[in-house]
UniProtKB/TrEMBL annotation, chain A:
Organism of derivation: Chloropicon roscoffensis
Compositional bias (Low complexity): 424-435
One annotated GO molecular function: metal ion binding
UniProt xrefs under CDD domains: ThiF_MoeB_HesA_family
Residue span of region Disordered: 1-32, 379-398, 414-443
Entry protein name: Ubiquitin-like modifier-activating enzyme 5
Record-linked PANTHER family: UBIQUITIN-ACTIVATING ENZYME E1, UBIQUITIN-LIKE MODIFIER-ACTIVATING ENZYME 5
TrEMBL record, chain B:
Sequence similarity: Belongs to the ubiquitin-conjugating enzyme family. UFC1 subfamily.
Function of the molecule: E2-like enzyme which forms an intermediate with UFM1 via a thioester linkage.
Molecular function in Gene Ontology: UFM1 conjugating enzyme activity
Designated name of the protein: Ubiquitin-fold modifier-conjugating enzyme 1
Amino acid sequence: MSGEGEEGPSSPGKEQQDVTHPMKAFSSELSKLQSQVQALQSTKLQEQVSKLRESVKSINERVQAAAEDLRKDAPVSVADSKGVATASKYSRAVKREKIAKMSAEVKDDNPYSRLMALQRMGIVKDYEKIRDKTVAVVGIGGVGSVACEMLTRCGVGGLLMYDYDTVELANMNRLFFRPEHAGMTKTDAAVKTLREINPDVNFESYHMNITTVDGFEKFVASITRDGDGKTPRVDLVLSCVDNYEARMVINQACLELEQTWMESGVSEDAVSGHIQMIEPGVTACFECVPPLVVASGIDEKTLKREGVCAASLPTTMGMVAGFLVQNTLKYLLNFGEVSMYLGYNAMKDFFPTMDIQPNPGCTNAACCKLQTKYAGERDRRKKAKEAKDVEVEEDAGALHEDNEWSISVVEEEAPAGAGGQGGESEAQGAELAEGIEFSMPKADAIDEKTLEENAVETNDDDDVDDLRAQLEALNSK
Amino acid sequence: MAEWDAGTKSTVQKIPLLKTKAGPRDKEGWANRLKEEYTALIKYVQLNKGSDQDWFTISSNKEGTHWSGKCWYIHNLLKYEFDLEFDIPVTYPMTSPEIQLPELDGKTSKMYRGGKICLSIHFKPLWSKNSPHFGVAHALCLGLGPWMAAEIPHLIDTGIISHKDK
């Protein structure tokens, strides 16, 4: 704090020479007073006291003026370019104010100029449409938090965040969360940071577990209009959870609401990941085929060592979040090709893609019903894709009219170790793209004969309460 | 798939398989399923008691959605007992219950937040394969039992948990 403002924040040399500076004057008068007191000359004493009073008054005025300056400068809005300059000079906190309309104007203080440039470049037709879109992100961990940050920076209209967990220091090997967030719920910590980055987004934070019966109902209510549990109000649900149970829950909710969603995952060994788009009835649901993973090329046996549940890397998680939100933007803003399945094998830098058709024998009744409902849509898409493939082939054919050197294209081999490792996968009979495997076996390993022989026997007369009491009675014995 | 010890293998084969594929949101179906769950559990507890290998107690709320009890493990002739609880997930029986031992939360890396035991490698694929015929009794026998057998001696030997009388 150095005086009237036109001076720089630090000018110590000047200060030392400035004998008129009130602080200097004060201490010199004080030392004079001390010597006068010692000499006990009363007239001079009075003179010194009044000089001292002047110094104190002058110091007070300066302090007040400096405080007034501070109040005027902060907080500084980004809309005020002069304010920005002052703020950065003094490195004071900048608060990003709300912006009513996205502008394409190229200015240093327009947070949307680089996004709106996507329109000028002809990539996106109407970028501002993103403000009408609402996305629900379930699981605000290594992938989810980064996906939320990306969506926030892209200016999505609404962002619903779900997680039951709190931030721990053990999460610091991932992106987004900071040590000072430790102990906060992941959803609250995310809202706090993200609101500062972009206050235009409508954030909703749900600190809850969606896998319990109550949690499921609350989840469904939160993604439907007025909580009616029927009419979807979000454009997309992103699954960024780390377990099979939660994915199954999201699948169930989305099937019941006919809600499009995208699944994402990072393998437990942290070196592979995937994203998958799920449109109920049109594509495979999460229950149609056992969940898919990209083989990491590591021998599974080496992974199943004692003591460790899961590894994680900020790189893989950041990439999967990037794939997920990129696919989300393409889907929401209607540009490029939306990937139905995209895998990532970090060990070989291998990125398989594939479409997954729904399974007519899916164990989920809601899925089977929607498969019938959307048979026409699947047919339409299949024909559109075939027509496109033909077009591509014709284009390719025209490129090489003669083939002097008899060059032919051979099927590329899958990277060693990334190919389907047979076993259970093959038994399940679905055609998978190279490098993709099932991560779980298919249900119903028990045949009817075994079931018949070993099935539990209950009678219609059995009373549930009686049975519960019988079980409890065993506890006390 | 994990290798099961002979004892666990022969026991699990004696636990009756369940028939009704119904979760807690399916009112009628769940009532039937619950009957099967209780019956299978009664059989399993009786089996354990019969061979003097009783190792848990369990009971549920009226809806059958929340289960709690105790489980114990004998190590060097001392009994270590823990509270046990879990909710029936909304997607049950397609997904297994996530068994929690809250007292051990944060004490082992083979556990998720809240004391959920880590079953992803040895148990979940098995559950998935046998769904919907496995029930709570199977989850205890093939999930919690082997987990405790692997983890509790290690926690005791490394001094992370100690006997209540010590």
